Amino acid sequence: MKNPEFLAGLEAAVAALRTTVNTEFATLPLALLNQRLAPTSWSILECLEHLNRYSRYYNAAFAEALARRVAAPAAEVEVAYTWLGRKSVEMMRPTNTKKSSTLKRLNPLGSDLGQEVLTEFDLHQTRLLEVLAQAATTDLNRKAVPVEFFRLLKLRLGEALEFVVVHQQRHMQQAQRVQASLRAELAC
After folding, report:
1. Element (H, E) at 145
2. Residue 166: how many CB atoms within 10 A of its CB?
3. Each residue's pLDDT tens digit, 15-63
4. Do the Cβ atoms of 154 and 146 come closer than 8 Å?
5. N or C: the chain end with fewer CB closer than 10 Å?
6. What's one Pfam family the UniProt record gives for this protein (predicted)?
């Protein structure tokens, strides 16, 4: 996919994530936002807090990569993937039903969470939209973003941006499944 279409798709996905949080979760009572379906499963807020923890790292890494900006090639250039980038994106796609575990520091299970998680999530999405706008003038195929869990490895800027967005989509769907199950329980 060419750079402009690629970035437009990511921007639309981020906008949809914000809409979901603001329309489906923001009005729910705190008790429901914190309710788990099982002791080891995440609540809605834990899903979003997990994404906030990733965003704290990746938004800063994107800002740093953009500060070292390399001029973008012509708009006709295709976004390219390394083996690691393609594998990372495919593992996190919401259509991939294989479960994966997270690092302890990124696992919010059992955290004391409040409405501030929703506010922080929205702030991170606003920042990500700014990053996507800035990325339009830089080379998305340059290796520039260290991987969160092993910083010696770097992803290309484009594949790192896509990884973050599909990871967010995956956990947003998880939060929506929690919400649907809780509504079904309350209806009984």
Report:
1. strand 143-147
2. 21
3. 999 999 999 999 999 999 999 999 999 999 999 999 999 999 999 999 9
4. yes
5. C
6. DinB_2
Q: In terms of pTM, does the model score above 0.70?
A: yes
Domain borders along the chain are 3-187
What interhelical angle do 116-135 and 3-20 show, nearest 10?
A: 170
CB atoms within 10 A of CB 150: 9
142 touches 68 (CB < 8 A): no
- Residue 74 pLDDT > 60: no
Least confident window among 13-27, 65-79, 121-135, 171-185 = 65-79
Residue 166 in tokens: 């599909």
Cα–Cα distance for residue pair 57/121, rounded to 1 Å? 13
Encoded tokens for 31? 């008790």
Query: Tokens 């099982």 appear where?
Result: 38
- Cα dihedral sign, 13-19-24-27: positive
Distance, CA of 24 to CA of 178 (rounded, Å): 12
Burial of 173 (0-12, 13-18, 19+ CB in 10 A): middle
- Residue 137 and residue 75 in contact, taking contact as beta carbons nearer than 8 Å: no
Q: How far apart are CA 164 and CA 186, in angstroms?
A: 33
